[in-house]
Amino acid sequence: MMKKLLFAFTALAGVAAFAGNVVFQLDKNFTMTGKVNDRYITKRFKEFPAEPNTWYRASAEIRCAMEPSDGRLRFRVRNVAKDGKSIVYANPAILKPVKLDYTLHSDIFMTKPNCARLQVYFILDRINGTADIRNVKVEKISAEEVEKILASKRVEPAFFSPATLIYSGERSLFWGYRVSAAFVDPKLIPAAITFSVPALKINSTAKVKVNEHVKVWARIPRPAKAGKYPVVMKALDKDGKVLLENKSTLTVIDRPAYHKNFPAKTVAIDADGNVLVNGKPTLIIGIYHAHNAAGARNIAAAGINTAQTWAPNPASYKKVLDIMAANKIYANCVLKNIRGEKLATLYNAIHNHPAVFSWDIVDEPAIRNITPEKIMPCVNQLRSYKSGKPLRISFSDSTVVKKYQKCYDMPAVHKYVLPFDGIAAQSKVVRAVVNNIAPGQSPQITLQSWVHWYDETQRPQSAAQTRSIAYISLINGAKGLWWYDFPVAYKIPHLWDTIKQLNAELLDLEDVILGKRTVVKCTPATVEAAVFSNGKRTIVIAVNTAKQAVKATINGIPGNNLTELYADGAQAAVRNNSSIFEIPAETTRIFEVK
């Protein structure tokens, strides 16, 4: 698509008189309007003098009404050399499409040695909606104020990623860390990080690399046996002084018997939205972007049973499918809305392959202005073949699911909730999807499995958060969980280990979770819970979506007492169909009903 360049140049009219250290300020509001197919709608202001090697703060209040898309709103300040060439850009705000009231966005930056002028401008890129902007200002700030600002943003010197789970019999594991130098007092940046598991005789050390997620392999002298083992990680300075210490637990479990129901000879969806593989209700646990042999082996070992699969031609497609089949992974075959002879050729080449599980029609059609009418030729052609495999479409907006309902059997909806929306946003999206799908369709939810998008310190989400976004989705009716994405998730050891542990739990609970689900009332309202039963087992899953611990009252529970699963076997009494227990912030607790 040809780039569409739309520029608006604003002279100094409307720029307020400067006071004190303020070097640029607007005295009036303005609005920018964009469309999803428009590239680089830009409003920029005249350049103004600036000093080199000097700290400045740029700020603006922004109100947005921008529809979901792949676009961005950028608030930028350009360093300009004497000859007019751009040197570098500061970005006080880079916003994905969102709806919010006026919010202050501010950042500090130091000009480059050859900077002579600065220029403020705003860009709407591939966004449908409006942005109202006011109180735009650039001001020079002192070194003392810079230090106060940096101090307010500083974090612990290391974000540890300790190993949390491996399988019995293994002889190695990986652990990792991240140090974000921009947000750490220079005196607290460690020179090395140590990792030790005394009971397994593991002692491993890594020199620190700043601003990277680092993964370190550690050898285990003897094959690990099932059990729980204390772990200690330390951040050390160059003299060996401990700057930070983190204690955790490594769990070793026997490898579950994953991938027992492969290949998928028949795939159907029952009235409850359960996916039936060879007649058996199956919880789909999928992942994006794992197309090579090494990736397939890793996701199979983690208990993931389905992968997004694509290749540019039939011959290479069959090779990718061979990799999936070798690891007993169902392939969700991406088609990119092809039709006619091209679709017929691909279908004839691969439809009998044992790895083929579902057909992925097109990714996020709403944000690409691909209407249901544009998709139906591909859909109708596939359905005419009567392959017996469901049709899938992914969406980034739960509100459009119903609009495309005739085009799919499995809607997959993306909601990357952390850090700002919170885990409660995950349940809201799932409920919106479940309430808008027809019988014979199965709600699939995409989960975040990587570092925070917007958190400039890039702290990985915690193990408890990772687990909770999965269980809150199941409480609210998801019938499949898709992790996004493999290459990044695998870099962060504790996230990948959490996914492995979660999948072991899900395999154990699959028959119960896909049985009868009853959402129950909880106090406080920040806790959500459901009772699941298959006639033989009954469990209670409760998630605290709040960012602080609570004492929860869960109503509607049968039986006399509860025993916690996948923890230390804690007990909770049931009286008058209610139970009371503590739940830490953004954490899930699962109990067996006795």
SSE map:
Elements: E1 6-10, E2 22-25, E3 30-34, E4 41-45, E5 48-49, E6 55-66, E7 72-80, E8 86-95, E9 99-110, E10 117-125, E11 129-140, H1 143-153, E12 159-161, E13 165-167, E14 172-178, E15 192-197, E16 202-207, E17 213-219, E18 227-236, E19 242-253, E20 267-269, E21 275-277, E22 280-282, E23 284-287, H2 293-301, E24 306-309, H3 314-326, E25 330-334, H4 340-350, E26 356-363, H5 372-385, E27 391-395, E28 410-414, H6 423-434, E29 444-448, H7 463-475, E30 480-484, H8 486-489, H9 493-513, E31 516-520, E32 522-523, E33 527-533, E34 538-544, E35 550-555, E36 561-564, E37 571-573, E38 578-583, E39 587-593
Written account of the structure:
By secondary structure, this protein is an alpha+beta fold. It is 18% helix and 40% strand. It is built from 9 helices and 39 strands. It has an 8-stranded parallel β-barrel with strand order 23-24-25-26-27-28-29-30, surrounded by 4 helices. α4 links the parallel β25 and β26. The longest helix has 21 residues, at 493-513. The radius of gyration is 27 Å and the shape is globular. The chain starts with 5 loop residues before the first strand and ends with a strand. The model is unreliable at 1-8 (pLDDT under 50).
Into which percent range does the helicity of residues fall? Answer: 10-25%
Which residues sit in consecutive blocks of at least 5 with pLDDT less than 50? 1-8
What is the spatial order of strands in the main beta sheet? 23-24-25-26-27-28-29-30
Based on helices, strands and strand pairing, what is the structural class? alpha+beta
Major sheet summary line: 8 strands, parallel, barrel
User: What is the average per-residue confidence, as pLDDT, rounded to a whole number?
Assistant: 91
Number of strands: 39
Radius of gyration: 27 Å
Number of distinct helices: 9
What global shape is seen?
Answer: globular
N-to-C CA distance: 61 Å
Tell me what portion of residues adopts beta-strand conformation.
35-45%
